[in-house]
Amino acid sequence: MIVLKSLSKDYGAKRKSVRALDDINLTINKGEIYGIIGHSGAGKSTLIRCINLLERPTQGTVEMDGVKLTELTVSELQEQRRKIGMIFQHFNLLTSATVFENIAFPLKLARKSSSEIEKRVSELLQLVGLADHRDKFPAQLSGGQKQRVGIARALANNPTVLLCDEATSALDPQTTNAILALLLDINQKLGLTIVLITHEMQVIRSICDRVAVIDGGRIVESGQVVDVFLNPAQPVTREFVEQVSDSAELGDVLGREKKAGTHQVMRVTFLGEITYEPILFETMRELGTSFSILQGTISRMKSTPYGQLIVKVQGNEAQVRQAVETLRIRGLDAEVI
Ligand SMILES: Nc1ncnc2c1ncn2[C@@H]1O[C@H](COP(=O)(O)OP(=O)(O)OP(=O)(O)O)[C@@H](O)[C@H]1O
């Protein structure tokens, strides 16, 4: 478990100092994938670098599995850092070393024997799907393959935590999905805790269990991805959700409806297996009304199916109200918008 308490970080001297993090309180549970999302300059990199103390917080504490990292001596901290792997946006590989040598590097630092290194690197190459590339140099690899080397290197000393600093931001969408799938696989196989920072809601939606939204150095919203995603409270969170839901279009649609003087537009949210059931259709039929779909998404959050439809009900106000009540009783979230 990682616990950040009252964490603040100021850069620069007193009068010109910049407050990059302001009173961050965060608990990340063992084995979960925790996402931190924010715009450029929000403080994401500073926050993730404070977790392994690559950046020293100005105030507050960082605790990992009961050990206060902020109170350790330099050598104690070095020891603790072995339990924390990290991967980076631009991979940070040694360009003049082969794939094998890059992955072996942290094992050499930990003074492992050459037979131990040979065995461990072979295991890691298998795990990340690079067994056929062990003698290549980074320049001979694609971006996705380079990140796989970065992941293998980060896992070399069997860490319990993996920090991912915009790990997929330099990759195309297809490669991003492959790397996210690998991270999820590692999380499930090894029980590793993963903390990732990103500016892409798609990354959060694909693999995270919980999310914190950071803005201006403060955490403005946090919770289970499902809850934050379906009911974003803060404007900045809504912006991120819009990245993946086309809800920008919705403004136009609602504008048109309002002009026409109708009040029959409903947002219906489905979560879990219920998403695939014909509840909406059957409810409307029973009430003697019909509907048209103005906008909709059916997708998955990690492994949870969800859907959100904006529908226009063909009926009077009482029928619309009754539709909302009935849908709620039947386990959907419905509201007139
Ligand atoms: N070494 C530094 N010295 C001074 N100011 C810094 C330093 N590093 C970051 N900052 C400032 O701290 C704030 C947070 O920066 P940070 O890099 O953590 O944000 P970020 O969310 O990771 O942004 P990006 O997505 O663009 O990398 C910004 O205002 C930035 O200018």
TrEMBL record:
Keyword field: Amino-acid transport, ATP-binding, Cell membrane, Membrane, Nucleotide-binding, Translocase, Transport
The ABC transporter domain, residue ranges: 2-241
GO molecular function, one term: ATP hydrolysis activity
Gene Ontology biological process terms in this record: amino acid transport
InterPro entries: AAA+_ATPase (IPR003593), ABC_transporter-like_ATP-bd (IPR003439), ABC_transporter-like_CS (IPR017871), ACT-like_dom_sf (IPR045865), MetN_ABC (IPR041701), MetN_ABC_transporter-like (IPR050086), NIL_domain (IPR018449), P-loop_NTPase (IPR027417)
Gene Ontology CC entries for this record: plasma membrane
A Pfam family annotated for this UniProt entry: ABC_tran
Family to which this protein belongs: Belongs to the ABC transporter superfamily.
PANTHER family to which the protein is assigned, alphabetical: AMINO ACID IMPORT ATP-BINDING PROTEIN, METHIONINE IMPORT ATP-BINDING PROTEIN METN
Protein name: Methionine ABC transporter ATP-binding protein
